[in-house]
Specification:
This protein is of the alpha+beta class and 465 residues long. The radius of gyration is 23 Å and the shape is globular. The chain has a nine-stranded mixed β-sheet with strand order 7-8-9-10-11-6-12-13-15. Strands 1, 2, 3, 4, 5, 17, 18 and 19 form an eight-stranded mixed β-sheet that branches. Strands 14-16 form a two-stranded antiparallel ribbon. It has two domains: 2-86 and 364-463, no CATH class; 100-273, Aminopeptidase. The protein contains 16 helices and 19 strands. The structure holds zinc ion. Residues 14, 16-17, 21, 44, 83-84 line the site of zinc ion (ZN). Residues 14, 16-17, 21, 44, 83-84 line the site of zinc ion. InterPro entries: Acyl_CoA_acyltransferase, N-end_Aminoacyl_Trfase, N-end_Aminoacyl_Trfase_C, N-end_Aminoacyl_Trfase_N. Pfam families: ATE_C (PF04377), ATE_N (PF04376). Residues 13-104 form the N-end aminoacyl transferase N-terminal domain.
Length: 465
């Protein structure tokens, strides 16, 4: 991966709550009882970086550490402080519990595209018919292709943004569309794929045995040869990640957004992708309600475990959640691997246990923040490492490697000052050892390790200016 030094972004406009939340930081003020922390500021807070190059496999692991990409920008919210708590959510056909609403949408769509398909008798429903109807349809088809710009896509995007999101037409340019939904940080061979891959992605050829496409992908929906929707996705080793969905407002009656989710869950199943990633879920955001209706799992970043929705739903409530066990004694921040390989609840130690939310015990605990501050000082005194100086990343970020763990790595020699990094400076890539750098530079590398994990940084090039 090649990326610019990550940065901690504050004071950002929040597109989800439109800066309407006044309870941000409330968590902290509530916990530590202090009244002097700002409780009326409104901001979305995240760690972000520009990615120059990244493989789909690397991105897959990053998604499973709570990151998402927007074009070439990679980001992860600070779940402790941001106004809206953005949780990674994924599902699969195993979790899909079709509601009456879903069935209605599917039946309406089938009637339109395959009027001759025999629907099951009343009170029965067969999800497979959604697939059958598309196979049989004479007026509906989709084309799956690489994530490339076309005028046709742009025109639909523009119409959608103006009519559905009330965007100012002057703000919508071909370039903004390109940057947001066509450009990717992935290597050319993944972007382009090959002829066989796209042949295999035609619905009539769907098969679990096919070699899977890995790469950024657009699916174009045509009704009577008119483009009516575009689904923007990343096909990744562990699943398909949904990025954005554009639909023609003239076809609002088809509920294409929900329909595409159902179609894509089915596609994952038929093509043998394990998970369908729906991006972030925010419990108190009206626009996100549809995601919950697909069922699925929520990522607990600090434990690196996916919990089924119903196990953790009661803890979300726009609060930070970290699952723990009753009676657990919290003495420090949880150890984090940050390898992007979270386990399933079923395989975790929490299976069948009574779950509680221990976020407050960890992040509302003064001793733990003091401990982080002391550890920061030890890094500085003992190893001449000044963390947070260049990145401005706080001492404590849920789901990042705690500073105490970094010190432990130094003490156990899992990490030392001979650790090698590649930096992109003044137009060229230069190898450095940690010891060659000034304390702020060393701190930057350690911040990157805290944020992205040791493994990823070992194979990365960091751009510094
Ligand atoms: Zn917000």
């Amino acid at each position: 991966m090649i990326f610019t030094a990550p940065h901690y972004f504050k004071d950002r406009h929040c597109g989800y709550c439109k800066d309407s939340k006044i309870d941000h930081y409330a968590l902290q003020s509530q916990w530590n009882g202090s009244k002097d922390v700002a409780i009326d500021e409104k901001e979305s807070i995240l760690i972000g970086t520009q990615i120059l190059q990244m493989s789909c496999n690397e991105y897959d692991k990053l998604i499973n550490q709570g990151f998402r990409r927007s074009g070439k920008f990679l980001y992860k919210p600070d779940l402790l402080k941001t106004c809206c708590r953005l949780y990674t959510i994924r599902t699969s056909s195993k979790y899909l519990n079709l509601s009456k609403h879903h069935r209605k949408i599917i039946n309406k769509f089938i009637k339109l595209i395959a009027p001759n398909l025999k629907l099951p008798a009343k009170n029965t429903f067969d999800f497979r018919n959604l697939y059958e109807a598309q196979l049989e349809s004479k007026n509906f088809k989709t084309i799956i292709e690489p994530s490339k710009f076309t005028k046709e896509k742009f025109e639909l995007y523009k119409k959608y943004q103006i009519r559905v999101h009330n965007d100012d037409p002057n703000d919508i340019s071909e370039n903004s569309f390109r940057r947001f939904l066509c450009d990717t940080p992935f290597p050319q061979e993944e972007v382009k794929g090959n002829t066989q891959q796209f042949k295999d992605l035609k619905i009539e050829n769907w098969n679990k045995e096919n070699k899977k496409r890995i790469g950024p992908t657009h699916e174009l929906y045509y009704l009577d040869d008119k483009l009516i929707a575009i689904s923007i996705m990343d096909f990744l080793p562990s699943g398909i990640s949904s990025i954005y969905f554009i639909w023609d407002p003239d076809y609002a009656y088809l509920s294409l957004g929900t329909l595409s989710g159902l179609k894509e869950i089915q596609m994952c199943d038929k093509l043998g992708y394990d998970h369908y990633y729906l991006g972030y879920y925010i419990q108190d955001c009206e626009k996100m309600k549809y995601k919950k209706q697909f069922g699925g799992e929520i990522l607990d970043l600090a434990n690196e475990i996916y919990f089924p929705f119903e196990k953790v739903d009661k803890f979300l409530n726009n609060r930070l959640f970290v699952i723990g066990e009753k009676g657990q004694n919290i003495i420090q921040e949880l150890e984090v691997e940050n390898k992007g390989e979270p386990i399933d609840y079923e395989d975790s130690d929490f299976k069948d246990k009574e779950l509680i939310n221990i976020a407050e015990d960890i992040y509302g605990n003064d001793e733990i923040s003091q401990d982080a501050e002391e550890c920061k000082q030890i890094l500085k005194d003992k190893y001449k490492i000044k963390v947070s100086t260049l990145t401005e990343v706080p001492n404590i970020i849920p789901g990042s490697i705690p500073i105490w763990q970094i010190i432990e790595w130094f003490e156990n020699e899992n990490l030392d000052l001979d650790f090698e990094v590649e930096l992109f400076i003044n137009g060229q890539i230069v190898d450095f050892k940690l010891r060659d750098l000034i304390p702020e530079g060393r701190g930057l590398i350690i911040d990157c390790i805290r944020i992205f994990g040791l493994e990823l940084i070992q194979d990365s090039v960091i751009m510094v200016s």
